[in-house]
Design goal:
The complex is a heterodimer of chains A (257) and B (166).
Chain A (H helix, E strand, L loop, with lengths): L6 H8 L5 H13 L1 H21 L8 H38 L4 H9 L21 E2 L9 E4 L5 E7 L6 E7 L4 E6 L6 E5 L2 E5 L5 E7 L4 E6 L2 E7 L2 E4 L6 E3 L1 E5 L3
Parallel strand pairs in A: 3-7, 3-9, 4-8
Antiparallel strand pairs in A: 1-6, 2-5, 4-13, 5-8, 6-7, 9-10, 10-11, 11-12
Helix pairs in contact in A: 1-3, 2-3, 4-5
Chain B lengths: L2 H20 L2 H17 L7 H18 L2 H8 L12 H18 L3 H11 L4 H8 L3 H19 L12
Helix pairs in contact in B: 1-2, 1-3, 2-3, 3-4, 3-6, 3-7, 5-8, 6-7, 6-8, 7-8
The chains are: A alpha+beta (257), B mainly alpha (166).
Chain lengths: 257, 166
């Protein structure tokens, strides 16, 4: 080798990722080049130092809990998917029949209102296959004080962005299909941003934020000010970060400053 | 495919990788769970499962990091801790080492960070390249650069300038 190897080639040599032919050429060069030998040694020391330093970050993995959650999701997925398919087919069939019948209220409603005139401001539609990009909820007059979203793949994250200190939050489990977030009372309403698996409540100064979580949702967390407060395990909600951990079907807490 | 066996073999390693990558144990667990869910729902036909899982997890992380800045803050930054009582000296030292390592990792672009951490897990260049969608011949230079940047920031004396040249 008449030219000095690049840093990348030396790294690949250290990692055993060069072909036999290239390795022989590199080693021949290194035998006669103090500069490249020094650089190789420096790369080796740096890599060893980085690997040794990373260990300080590590903590035990929650294997058992994670495995339990995966097993639950798998079993729900099998039955849930079949039930959902049956429910959707039944709904579509009955809707088609209703719309086709002369004089049916549904037929009359469709003719009067049209699909494009459905009310706005209350719901975000789930778009299958779309990336999770938050959309502001279109404002009607007055500004919406509640949104509801059907969770994507059984998952939902509710995030309170820049919550006012001491904001009261109520989270409860209910028999419904959508996650509903409402802001009640207070001096100013927050803005909402939603996507298929996320609802953000931004700014504002509501008296209370109320979150209703479907009983059947697979994965739910609530965060405020960058901190996780509530997660769902089975039918119960679990609260942490505001003193002793609590759990139950309904939790009320205040956002920590 | 014995998913349970794969899970017990791979989850600890995947969690460690994702925790180092994201700085958040909750996010690491979320991403690991999602990767296994995808394994169950859409298993790879012929691929080696471990590199495949790391690839899925890495893509989930990079997709999140590429989204709006708000998503990056939640996925890539260290979690905020509530104020704590004074710690014994050993715990203070440990916390400081953790802070320095996290600061060094966060100075590395997300893709290069994933390359470094996958290499730390022992993956070959071809597997790493497949996970982060670059040519295998690019891994050596990118890895060397990531290592240098990490060590430069990590080794900086206390109170050093964050904009120090490398």
């Amino acid at each position: 080798m008449t030219t000095h190897p690049s840093e990348g080639e030396l790294q690949a040599l250290l990692d055993g990722e060069v072909t036999y032919v290239d390795q022989e050429a590199l080693l021949r060069h290194l035998r006669s080049c103090d500069g490249c030998r020094g650089e190789l040694e420096e790369l080796r020391r740096a890599f060893d130092q980085a690997i040794a330093a990373l260990v300080v970050l590590d903590r035990p993995a929650p294997v058992r809990e994670a495995h339990r959650r995966l097993v639950r999701r798998r079993s729900r997925g099998t039955w849930g998917a079949a039930l959902r398919r049956a429910a959707v087919l039944l709904f579509l069939a009955s809707t088609a029949v209703s719309a086709a019948l002369p004089g049916s209220p549904l037929r009359e409603w469709l003719a009067t209102n049209g699909w494009e005139n459905r009310p706005e401001g209350e719901e975000a539609r789930r778009t299958v296959g779309a990336p999770t990009v938050l959309q502001p909820v279109p404002a009607t007059a007055p500004s919406p004080t509640a949104v509801s979203v059907r969770p994507a793949d059984g998952r939902m994250r509710v995030v309170l962005v820049r919550p006012s200190p001491g904001l009261r939050v109520r989270v409860l489990v209910a028999d419904q299909e959508r996650v509903r977030v409402s802001a009640e009372g207070g001096s100013s309403s927050p803005r909402f941003r939603t996507s298929a698996d996320r609802i953000e409540v931004v700014d504002g100064d509501p008296g209370e934020v109320r979150v209703t979580v479907p009983r059947g949702i697979l994965h739910f967390v609530l965060e405020a000010g960058g901190r996780r407060y509530v997660s769902k395990e089975g039918d119960r909600l679990h609260l942490s970060g505001t003193g002793p951990d609590r759990s139950g079907p309904e939790l009320v807490f205040k956002v920590q400053p | 495919m014995d998913v349970d066996s794969i899970f017990h073999r791979t989850y600890p390693r995947l969690f460690r990788y994702l925790h180092r990558l994201t700085g958040s144990p909750d996010t690491a667990d979320d991403l690991a769970q999602e990767s296994f869910v995808r394994l169950v729902s859409r298993p790879p036909p012929d691929a080696d499962v471990q590199p495949w899982l790391f690839r899925v997890a890495t893509n989930l992380f990079l997709d999140g990091a590429r989204a709006a800045g708000r998503h990056r803050r939640l996925l890539a930054s260290a979690p905020l801790d509530p104020p704590a009582p004074p710690l014994p000296d050993e715990a203070v030292e440990h916390a400081e080492r953790v802070r320095r390592v996290r600061a060094a990792l966060e100075r590395i672009p997300e893709r290069d960070r994933a390359i470094l951490l996958m290499r730390a897990e022992g993956f070959r260049y071809e597997e790493i390249a497949h996970a982060v969608d670059v040519a295998p011949s690019s891994i050596g230079p990118l890895l060397a650069r990531a290592v240098r940047r990490f060590v430069t920031v990590y080794s900086r004396p206390e109170g050093g300038n964050d904009d120090a040249s490398e």
